[in-house]
Design goal:
7-stranded mixed sheet; alpha/beta; single chain; 2,3-Dihydroxybiphenyl 1,2-Dioxygenase, domain 1; 2 domains; about 260 residues; 6 helices
């Protein structure tokens, strides 16, 4: 099992992005993690389908998140967090590849590793096991108490995150590296390298905006695309020429 359970964005103004996500996608906050203060960050998580969208923001200088914002010239995608069913095997596999781990956290309820972005470029990749995670809507420790998640879940506008789009000057090479790590093959969708997870797709595209390697886009399954576009315009967000993609938090949200 390998699912795209959580996506993390990084933003300079946390409240601003939260307001837009509420207003455009109808999402609600289920958890704010006080433990991130030790990294100089504050955050929120919002359920979307059976997954989660997190946004973090630095509140002091010298944080990794702050350096990432500077390096990529503003808000943007930060992490792709994948849920797996055997973290011991995944940890051993990553070690055999010589990939450095930047954070290793383990408890009886959850166990995960974050991989060094210089070894696995494009976003911080995280592999995590969670007790009770066999069910698609099972508990997810980073999102706080499961009852709060259930109470906060809204699906009248957005139903699920279905793809993450990682951009690079060499998409094929980036896809090959991620394939090595997640142990899933690279396929092609109209010439675009893709990796199929159990519930979503990782898509690897050319850097077309000059921001360098990074998590540049997300696909969101929505109930009514026209409604979301209208809400985005109301919030004065940029709507791209294809009329099905909006810019929010420095990320291309493609409505599917």
């Amino acid at each position: 099992m390998l699912r795209m359970r959580q996506i993390c964005l990084v933003a300079q103004d946390l409240d601003h992005v939260e307001s837009h996500l509420r207003g455009v996608f109808g999402l609600e906050v289920c958890h704010r993690d006080p433990g991130l203060a030790r990294f100089g960050l504050h955050n929120f998580l919002m359920p979307i389908g059976n997954g989660f969208l997190e946004v973090v923001s630095p509140f002091q200088p010298g944080t990794a998140g702050g350096r990432y914002i500077q390096r990529r010239g503003g808000d943007g995608g930060y992490m792709v967090i994948m849920q797996c069913d055997n973290i011991v095997e995944r940890r051993n596999h990553v070690a055999a590849l010589g990939i450095r781990v930047v954070l290793d956290s383990a408890s009886d309820e959850t166990n995960g590793i974050q991989l060094h972005p210089k070894d696995v470029p494009g976003a911080i990749a995280e592999l995590r096991w969670n007790r009770g995670g066999d069910a698609p809507d099972g508990p997810w420790n980073p999102a706080g108490p499961h009852e709060h998640v259930t109470e906060s879940r809204r699906d009248h506008v957005a139903r699920a995150l279905t793809a993450a789009e990682l951009q690079s000057s060499d998409p094929a090479a980036m896809a090959a590296r991620w394939s090595e790590v997640v142990q899933r093959p690279v396929s092609s969708d109209g010439g675009v390298p893709t990796i199929e997870l159990d519930d979503a797709v990782l898509r690897f595209v050319e850097d077309a905006d000059g921001r360098g390697d990074g998590l540049g886009g997300l696909d969101v399954s929505v109930v009514d695309r026209d409604h979301v576009i209208a809400a985005a315009r109301h919030h004065e967000l940029r709507v791209l020429e294809d009329q099905s993609t909006i810019m929010l938090g420095g990320v291309r949200f493609r409505l599917v």
